[in-house]
Amino acid sequence: MLEISHLRYDVTAEDGGALDILKDVSLTVETGKLVVITGPNGGGKTTLARAIMGLNQPTGGTIHWNGQDITNLSITERAKLGVSYGFQQPPRFKGLRVKDLLALAAGKPDLAPGEGCQYLTQVGLCADDYIDREVDASLSGGEVKRIEIATILARGAGLMIFDEPEAGIDLWSFAKLTETFERIHKQGNATLLIISHQERIIQLADEIVVVEKGEVAHHGPREEIFPRIMARTIPGCGYMKGGES
Amino acid sequence: MEQVDWKILREIADLEKTPQGAYNFRVNGALDSRQTTANIDIVSKQDKPGIDIIVKPGTKKESVHIPVVLSATGLTDVVYNDFYIGEGADVDIVAGCGIHNTGCETAQHDGIHVFHIGKNARVRYVERHYGEGPGTGENILNPRTEVYLEEGASITMEMTQIRGVDSTIRDTVVEVAAGGECIINEKLLTDGAQRAESNVEIILTGEDATGRVVSRSVAKGESVQVFRPCMTGKDKCFGHVQCDSIIMDTAKIKSIPAIDAQSVDAQLIHEAAIGKIAGDQILKLMTLGLTEEEAEEKILEGFLN
Q1: Residue B284 to residue A87, Cβ atoms within 8 A
Q2: Least crowded by CB within 10 Å, which of A12, B125, B165, B226?
Q3: What's the burial of B114, exposed, middle or buried (CB within 10 Å: 0-12/13-18/19+)?
Q4: What is the pLDDT of residues B120-178, one digit of tens each?
Q5: Whole-angstrom distance, CA of residue B83 vs CA of residue B145
Q6: Is B270 left (phi over 0), alpha (psi -120 to 50) or beta?
Q7: Cβ within 8 Å, pair B286-A75
């Protein structure tokens, strides 16, 4: 179970004032659930996800994973406890090949080629074409993004956080990706936290969290939250006029 | 040969025992052992230290190992090796020098290699430089390599210096005739107060000659590196120079690539980049369970491999 309690993240703005990126976020995600975090750009979704992984150090509040307080643990320690995070904009590595990254992710220096290929197939990449390639500038944004997701699959961690996994990915790969999320969810071994704006992914969710202006605006079962999000996206709806739906 | 010499041979040539094919081991400035084959002859020079390596035309899939080991401190070893590769031959040449310096005096090896590569012959040349030892004496390697490629001939040179060489000045000059190809892959890591300088000059003299230099380096500590790769095109030809360096700590790297076109049909490109390890790369590997140090090591290992 992931328990986030009164999480705050402030930074100092250029004018010296305080910017509250996360104001007071409390959120509990039960083990084995698939939860989609959505909401407008700049609302704090990525900051929240990175704080769980330890990439941002919160200025207040706590994060517990499976009962353990991980708020002050390093990224490495969290990773070893089963927290994983797929970057929204993954870095490239000159000289590191796809199979090297997958082997590191799986924690198996001698990862069998078959196993590595299996992870690539799950994100819609033809394994033979990619397994020996360097994760450098020769790959497109969508390719790097899918390799990034494959590393999270290879980790097989208890908590998988994906940050806009659909970004830059073509339709066909996207279909494969949603299937993969669905399958992992059905197996029930992992808790999935997916930041997404895609209806197809939102439809997979047990619960939806809407993060807005650094706060959890809504959190509840998909059946309850989803119609409210849809209502807000209709042109001329209450949200566009500044009101709540 | 002593045990320490074998250890160094492993580092510079992956050798556990005497290799197949032709070889010439030079230890502490003198011949240790030699083997020739029906197609490859090795002859000591009469007028100066060094050897002539003569490969018969048409020799296929044979190799020559010519490692040099220095395990005595205070020794300066200068060697002149000339390679004559016959027309249409296809051979691997493994050179390299390892220094095990136990004393406080300088150990220095300056290898001067000249390759004459006949028409349509292919050579794969691997050279590794390595230094070690508990002594305070400097390990110095100043190699000079000259390559003359005849029509249609090609050479791939893998030149690596990863550890323990305090000072190096490397000069490489290659002339490529029509239809020939020269590929240089250079890898360099310096640390501490080490200094390394590499000057590479490729001259594409004939039609459809090709030259490529890919140089990757890492400078740590307060080490200093200077690269001066130059590609000259004198005919319809293609040349590409790429220097890529990772800078760390308080190191200094200077990269000065040059391209020199002397024909309207010469197509020459150079790229050079120096930068530190991106923070995101380290963070990404940490999210996979590596510590910061392990992440850095992996990134450098990948970069230099």
Answers
A1: yes
A2: A12
A3: middle
A4: 999 999 998 888 888 888 888 899 999 999 999 999 999 998 888 899 999 999 999 99
A5: 11
A6: beta
A7: yes
B291 Cβ under 8 Å from any chain A Cβ: yes
Rg (alpha carbons) of chain B, rounded to whole number? 20
Distances (CA, A) of A103 to A213, B144, B165: 38, 40, 32
The confidence score (pLDDT) of residue B15 equals 75
Residue numbers in chain B where pLDDT is lower than 70: none
Distance CA A20, CA B225 (A): 45
Alpha carbon B95 to its chain centroid, in Å, reads 9
Q: How many CA atoms lie within 13 A of B108 on its CB side?
A: 12
Determine if the pTM surpasses 0.90.
no
Cβ separation A104–B292 shorter than 8 A: no
Residue contacts between A and B (CB atoms, under 8 Å): 58
- Is some CB atom of chain B closer than 8 A to the CB atom of A81? no
ipTM: 0.91
- Higher-pLDDT residue of B10 and A80 is A80
Q: Which candidate, A141, A122, A132, places its Cα nearest to that of A100?
A: A132
Which residues share a beta bridge with A36? Answer: A194, A208
Domain locations in chain B as residue ranges: 3-277
Name every chain B residue with its beta carbon within 8 A of the beta carbon of A76. Answer: 286, 289-292
Average pLDDT, chain A: 90
Q: How far apart are CA A194 and CA A205, in angstroms?
A: 9
> Which tens digit of pLDDT belongs to each residue from A148-191?
999 999 999 999 999 999 988 888 889 989 999 999 999 988 99
The beta-carbon neighbor of B305 closest among A90, A91, A95 is: A95
**E-state strands within B235-281:** 237-247, 252-255, 258-261, 266-275
Stated as kind and residue range, the H or E segment containing B113 is: strand B107-117
Q: Hey, which residues 239-278 in chain B have their CB within 8 Å of chain A?
A: 244, 278
- Which residues in chain A have their CB less than 8 angstroms from residue B303's CB? 94-95
Task: Identify any residues that bridge with B68 across adjacent strands, giving them in sequence order.
Answer: B26, B97
Band of residue A233 on the pLDDT scale cut at 50, 70, 90? low
Q: What is the pLDDT of residue B133?
A: 81
The contacts of residue A241 (CB under 8 Å, 6+ apart) are: none
Position A75: which residue type?
I
The predicted structure's pLDDT at residue B190: 94
Domains observed in chain A: 2-233 (3.40.50.300)
Query: Around Cβ A125, how many Cβ atoms within 10 Å?
Result: 22
CA B1 – CA B288 distance, rounded (Å): 45
**Banded pLDDT at A245 (limits 50, 70, 90):** very low
Q: What span, in angstroms and rounded, lies between the C-alpha atoms of B239 and B237? A: 7
Instruction: Using only the alpha carbons of chain A, give its radius of gyration.
Output: 18
